[in-house]
Design goal:
It is a single chain. By secondary structure, the protein is an alpha/beta fold. The protein has helices spanning 2-20, 33-42, 57-65, 70-79, 110-115, 144-155, 164-170, and strands at residues 30-31, 47-52, 81-86, 93-95, 98-100, 102-103, 108-109, 124-128, 136-139. It is globular. The termini are far apart.
């Protein structure tokens, strides 16, 4: 009886820890589109949107290998409004005055389709520059050093002065 009770307690603890995360561990601060839109009114920053699906294996790898890295977490939290968005979400989302819904025919959310510019590849990292700049969709897994290249280009405002190709040729990654 004691072994069964101990097993149940261990399982309950494991189950709860999957919802609460590891105490004290840094994490990317994810928000909803509506919250990011409000924050943009207070302070202009680029918006990073992690467009994912539940079935996407590379999305899970990116969560563990990229979004869990301390350098990535700190930089994204300090320089971006970060949104995690399920491309197959059924909930309506309002962004910049327009309400987007799930498209049952295509089996994808209308906002995801617009953000990823029709290229249904996941994960997909979308950067929306502040003040209405043209968004940039980057399909596929981004390792920390690849994320650094993109994040610093937008987060440091380099995109205002230099082309991405020019920036990429001279950039030296420091995130491992």
């Amino acid at each position: 009886m004691q072994k069964v009770l101990l097993l149940l307690l261990l399982l309950a603890g494991w189950h709860l820890s999957s919802f609460t995360g590891t105490p004290g561990k840094e994490q990317v601060v994810w928000m909803r589109f509506e919250e990011a839109e409000q924050k943009l009114k207070e302070q202009q920053r680029p918006v990073l949107v992690d467009v994912y699906t539940d079935w996407c294996g590379w999305c899970k790898v990116m969560d563990k290998k990229t979004y869990a890295r301390p350098q990535v977490i700190r930089y994204l939290n300090e320089n971006f409004y970060n949104i995690r968005f399920d491309a197959e979400s059924k909930e309506p989302v309002t962004w910049k005055g327009k309400t987007y819904k799930y498209d049952h025919t295509r089996r994808i959310h209308e906002l995801a389709l617009e953000l990823i510019t029709g290229e249904m590849a996941f994960p997909n990292t979308v950067i929306i520059p502040p003040a209405g700049g043209k968004s940039q969709s980057i399909p596929g897994f981004l390792a920390p050093r690849d994320m650094e290249l993109v994040a610093r280009y937008y987060g440091d405002g380099v995109y205002r002065k230099r082309s991405f190709d020019n920036w990429a040729r001279t950039f030296r990654p420091s995130w491992k």
